[in-house]
Structures are given as C-alpha cells and as structure tokens.
Amino acid sequence: MSNVLPSYLKEASPNSMENRAPWYKNTAPSYAGIFISVPFMAGMAGALAYGSVNAAVIGLILGSLFCFLIYYVPGILGFKTGMPLYVVGSSTFGTKGGILMPGLLMGVLQIGWHAVFTFTATSFFMKAIGSNAEAGSLLFWIVAAVWGLILAFVGATGIGLLGAISSWVPLAPLIVIIIAGFSNLDGISKFSDVMSGFNSFGSAVPVMGIAAFAAFQSAAGFFATAGAAGADFTCNSRSEKDVVMGGLVGITIAALVAGIFGIMTMAGAIGNNPELAVHAGSGTFAAFIESIGTVSGLSKIMYWVFVIACVCPTGFCAFLAANAFATMFPKIPSKPMTLVSGGIGVVLAATGLAANLVGFFGIIGASFGPILGAMFADYIRSRGWNGPREGVNWAGYIAWACGFVVGILGVIPGIGFAYGLETLMSFIVGFAVYLLAAGMGCEPKTVPLEN
Questions:
Q1: What pLDDT score does 306 carry?
Q2: What residue spans define the domains of the chain?
Q3: Gap between the Cα atoms of 46 and 50, Å rounded
C-alpha cells in the first residue's frame, strides 16, 4: 500500500506526547502574536469606513468567535493525530488532491503574507525616518528589497532565532496600540459627526457593507489560513482542553483586544482630526498610519515599534511558503525556494499591490473558507479522522469550487459585489456542498498511513 501514498504522507509521523506542552506555552502565544499585528489592527480599523464604532465592535466580536469556530476542527484533528494540516487535510481532498489543496495553495498565500508584512514594515520605516516616499518610488523599492530579502534569508537559515523572539516581540505593538487607543479616546464621541459630513464616505459603501459586516469579514479573511493551520499548532497540545483554551485566549481574546484598540485608535484620531476622514475611505494602511501619527510625542517611537513587530512574521511567511512547496515536492531545495518566495513578496510590496488589505483578506477568505467548511463537514461525517482518502476526493474539490465562487464575488471588480460576509458564506457553502457530494458517492475510500 506504500506505493499509493505520495512522499509527504509516506514520511509523515505523529508528534509524540512527550514533545507536547500546555496551551499557554505554544498555541495561545503563537496565535496571539498573529492577531497583535499591524495588518489585523489596520484591517479592523478600516471597517470604520462603513459605519459606526459600535457596529465595528459588534462585527469584531462575532468575527472573533467565528475565528475560533474555523480553528476548532483542524485543532482537534491536530491534537488527536499529532499530524499537521497537510496530513489531516488529505482526508478532505485526497492523497493526490491534498498536494494542491491545502498544500500548494497555502504556500502561494504565504507569499502574499510576506508581501503584506514587507509593505507594512517599509511604510512605517518611511514614517519613522520622516520620508514621503511611497510604493513604486526608488527608495521604497530599496527598503522593501533589503527588508524582504534579508528576512527571507533569516527564515531560510535561522528560523529558530525567529521562533525564540516571537513570543515576546508582539508585546511591544500591543503596548503601543493600547497607548494610542487611550490617547485618542476623547475623539471617539466626535467620530460619527465627522463621518456623517464626509460625502464620499457614504458613496463608498458596498451593498450591505455596513461596519459590522466589514469588521466580521476583516477578522475572518485575515484569520482563514491561520485557522486551517490549527493542526500545525495543536499537534503540540496535550489535551482537548489545551486546544480549547489555546483558541479562546490566543484567538478570540487576542483578536478582541487588538481589534478594539485598533478601532479606538482610528476612530479617535478621525474625531479629533476631521481631515483624516479622507483616509478612512482611501486606504486602510494610510488610515492606520495617520491615526498612529496623531499621538503627540510618541509617534516616531510607535513607528519604529511597528517596524520591529514585522520582523518575525516577514521571516516566518517566507519560510512557510517554501516549506509548503518543499513538503509537497521534496526534490525542491527549501532554502533557495525561501529566497525566491521572499523575492516575489518584495515585488508585490514595492509596487504597492500588497497595500490592498481588503482585497487580500477577501482572496484568503474565499480560498480557505470553503476548505475549512469542507473539513468541518468531513469531520462530522467521519466522526473524526479515519485517514487519507485515495487519489482525489472530488467531494472536497467540488465543495471548494462552489464556496470559492461565492466568496470571491466581493474581490472581482466589475463582476460581483461586496456584501461583507464572503468568508462566512464560502464556509457555509463548502460545508453543505461537501455533505451533499459525499452523500452522492464522490468520496473515495481511505488508505492507511504506515506511521
């Protein structure tokens, strides 16, 4: 039977209980570090372009709970099997089908994340040195290239160093965003009045795109890949309690803290400085950067803190992208591929393509929402995990295709429309279609793992 399995499954072995640790030593801090990041806080603040502070907070609360939901099944599978996403996903998509999804798709999207963090770090660096250089300019290209390629190299050769500092580096931006939020607190009450008089703001609202939906989508789209990777985190968990507590603290609570202070910072900044309202509709990064700049006396320090906060995720994303490709195709050398991934990320960042957080989060949600929905349905139907399925599991691919079409509507200009719940709907469609397709016989038989 060994000749049926691709190499990524032949070589898979579970993480033993001796190597596992409590939730507060692995899952919770790792996920908290993901949420306490500039892209998430900027994305949440960007939801204010579509409505009130209260609506954005409601959407954030619901979104943070949804993030826990989509993490739970991969998390339980990782704990029970001791295997990463690539292995547990082979049930939903098949031994051969799992190579493309979630395998290579995860790698492609990690390149996108490398670009987002490179763009973020470069943008804040420009503010820190007092430069007005923007994406596409020579200076922006130089800084983005130096940042992205050096950290891709670190990801290829010193990932252990990044892991060692990743547990405490997120504390700095957390402290900064709390200071910024309270510094702009007195302006929050003026926010609604300012935005009500901003005419172009109202015309930018997509169909049903109220702030609650926008905040929900920002959280869900931001987290979709990390939710699918729950198995990679929880194969280090000792018990189901570790899975639950790690998710509640590291995902739900961390998202609420980072998101609320991100919303407070931007809303207060706009309330106190009405001229910043234009940034709410023109670009999430611009809005967030300008809102940080309103904190008098500390803005330069805050800019540098956010630059430093991008060190670990930039290196990790290049490493994870290359690791996805190398896992699926072991003959591809991992270190050169990490640098190639970093180079592609640099181009996306320096040209400004990585600045569109709304579009990027939409692509992530549309891509991984149905993957998570299909995995959820497979888990319920199989009452757990029974092993990889032979070849291509067409139930999973059909579910993904249907969910992707539903989820991508808000991203394609001139074709579909944004309605703010794309990731949620793609998850639901993926879940329902998988159950339907599997019930019609599109689900192949399982094959055993040697290890």
A1: 87
A2: 24-439
A3: 8
